Amino acid sequence: MFEPLKSLIASKYQVEVDRITPDATLDDLGLDSLDVVELAMAVEHEWGPKVTDDELLEAQRLDAIIDLIESRVARI
């Protein structure tokens, strides 16, 4: 799940791929609140589970976001 999320973030937000690591935070990647809303919608579009922007902001780090997405995908 990390590589697909990394690709999504790199292409959608023009973030250099070497900056996108599991322990990177959304702030580290330069994502603002609107970007996080868009990311939540992109996650739902790409993988199916509904994840809110508040949940992404609470998770903050990419590894925690991946855990959240994977737990939701497992329920589908």
Automatic annotation (TrEMBL):
GO BP term, example: lipid A biosynthetic process
A Pfam cross-reference name: PP-binding
Coiled-coil regions listed in the entry: none
Name of the protein: Carrier domain-containing protein
Gene3D superfamilies listed in its UniProt record: ACP-like
GO terms of molecular function: acyl binding; acyl carrier activity
Record carries keyword Ribonucleoprotein: no
Domain Carrier: 1-73
Record's GO cellular component terms: cytosol; membrane
Keywords: Fatty acid biosynthesis, Fatty acid metabolism, Lipid biosynthesis, Lipid metabolism, Phosphopantetheine, Phosphoprotein
The organism of origin for this protein: Phytohabitans houttuyneae
TM region positions: none
Superkingdom per UniProt: Bacteria
